[in-house]
Specification:
Among the domains are: 19-195; 360-467. The protein has 29 helices and no strands. α4 runs antiparallel to α5. The longest helix is centred in the first third of the chain and has 23 residues, at 123-145. By secondary structure, the chain is an all-alpha fold. The protein has helices spanning 7-14, 18-31, 33-44, 47-62, 70-89, 96-108, 110-114, 123-145, 151-161, 170-173, 180-190, 195-205, 208-222, 224-236, 240-251, 257-273, 277-291, 294-303, 309-322, 324-333, 337-349, 359-362, 365-377, 381-398, 404-418, 423-426, 432-443, 447-453, 459-463. It is flat and about 85 Å long. It holds the Pfam family DUF6880.
């Protein structure tokens, strides 16, 4: 049965009269009990009635005995989130004070609830995260209605009650519902008590004066991520010289790889924005040599006003020195399919089969398949055929009959692409018949595979009596 009405069915339904539609609703509600509940909850209750219904549903769920089976516990929290949190979200702006009251009760009882269930699946976090987002959204709406509401007091109390899981992005994700002056009050209250969160909130406020003071006084407590965010903010505010100074100091310190990677990329951008193009271009080359990240090549192209082949030769030479996989990955990433194919042709002419032996130790099958399709689309069928044949051979070598369907598909694609290879390039690889014959000699006992290929492999091969 279809889960959705077709376009034609929707058009038919739109032609029903009011009485006919009421009849449909009546019939459905008599046959399917859950439809009654859905209609009542979403269309037939006032907001106050909905809130009471949610509260009763929560109490019913909370009174349950509990369960320590993994999947049942996982399902329980998903169901609880669906039946309470999502419904409360629709009431947060209309009934803010009432929503704050019930969500704070639910947050306060979360520990007791979690003790009764297996929480290893993590679905409890989705439930609590959703609940906290509804709560702060409602609290912001309540404050906007009546600024006598003690937003800061509510915030700090709830935070202390679930400090083991109080998401750092809560204010950031809900700043549209929380007035700026309230966020600033929270930040000022946290100064001296929780300097890390005070800093995080200052970034939400984009308070440059406060952040500059903190940076000068404590360099953000040697936290590389905070320093990076500060440089990013400076660059956004067109304070490029200051951003460069922060990043250059930061890059000379020991940083986790993910932060170091971001710092290096941002430093190239900051130098260029600050007018030091040559230094930015040189850094592109330096950083590229370390990790072969094609994004540095793109930045080099973007920031180089009078580019020529000699300027980019450096990048191609570096990846060429690193071997086949690096070169193919780089040229594919920058979508230079001509260089990709030229490289493959060079290896074919040299009969350098060894360079492809470990291709699937470093590349995912899905990546090779995607490259092959793109090459065919871009007018490079020789490379497309070559890669598809490698996919077939790798699959058959693994001898997993359940995966033969992929080998069959790849072989068929290679035959389709073969039709577009130029006469000159056809000399570089075995013909279809020669390839299939050699493949059969090596894998002739894989009967399930060959039986699936009968309908599309050349007649010359099937007539020869091999299969």
């Amino acid at each position: 049965m279809s889960k959705k009405l077709t376009k034609k069915q929707i058009e038919q339904l739109s032609q029903f009269t009011v009485d006919e539609l009421l009849g449909v609703i009546h019939d459905l509600s008599e046959k399917y009990g859950e439809i009654n509940q859905y209609l009542a909850m979403n269309y037939l209750m006032s907001p106050e009635e909905k809130l009471k219904n949610i509260e009763n549903e929560y109490k019913r769920q909370f009174r349950k005995k509990g369960n320590y089976e993994y999947w049942k516990s996982h399902a329980f929290f998903l169901d609880l989130e669906n039946k309470t949190v999502r419904s409360l979200d629709s009431l947060a702006l209309g009934l803010p004070l009432e929503t704050v009251k019930i969500t704070e009760k639910m947050i306060g009882e979360a520990d007791d609830l979690f003790e009764k269930y297996d929480t290893s699946s993590g679905s409890w976090q989705d439930y609590l995260y959703g609940l906290l987002n509804v709560w702060i959204k409602a609290l912001g709406a309540a404050y906007k209605k009546d600024n006598q509401v003690d937003f800061v007091g509510h915030y700090l109390e709830v935070k202390s009650n679930c400090d083991y899981y109080f998401p750092s992005d809560l204010l950031q994700n809900n700043k549209a519902f929380v007035p700026r002056e309230v966020i600033q009050k929270i930040r000022d209250t946290l100064k001296g008590h929780d300097d890390q969160e005070a800093l995080e909130i200052s970034f939400i406020l984009r308070d440059q004066e406060y952040l500059a003071h903190c940076y000068e006084s404590n360099r953000f407590l040697h936290n590389g991520f905070f320093c990076f965010k500060y440089a990013q903010l400076l660059l956004d505010e067109f304070k490029t010289e200051e951003a460069v100074l922060v990043l250059e100091e930061l890059k000379s310190t020991a940083l986790p790889y993910d932060i170091q990677f971001k710092v290096e990329h941002l430093l190239v951008d900051a130098l260029y924005e600050n007018g030091d193009r040559e230094k930015a271009l040189n850094l592109c080359k330096e950083y590229f040599s370390k990790n072969l990240d094609s994004e540095y090549y793109r930045k080099f192209i973007k920031y180089h006003s009078d580019l020529n082949a000699l300027d980019t030769e450096y990048f191609y030479q570096r990846v060429y020195e690193r071997g086949t996989i690096s070169y193919l990955r780089f040229t594919a990433n920058i979508e230079n399919w001509s260089a990709f194919e030229s490289f493959l042709i060079e290896k074919m002419v040299d009969n350098d089969d060894k360079c492809f032996e470990n291709i699937f130790n470093f590349l995912q099958v899905s990546t090779v398949r995607k490259w092959s399709t793109t090459l065919a689309q871009q007018g490079y069928p020789l490379s497309a055929v070559f890669l598809r044949r490698k996919l077939v051979e790798d699959n058959l070598k693994q001898a997993r009959s359940a995966n033969y369907k992929y080998a069959v598909s790849d072989l068929k694609k290679s035959l389709d692409f073969m039709a577009y290879i130029s006469e000159e390039h056809q000399k570089l690889i075995p013909s279809t018949l020669a390839y299939i014959t050699a493949l059969h000699e090596k894998h002739q006992r894989k009967y399930a595979f060959w039986n699936a290929c009968v309908d599309f492999i050349p007649e010359e091969f099937t007539k020869s009596g091999y299969i």
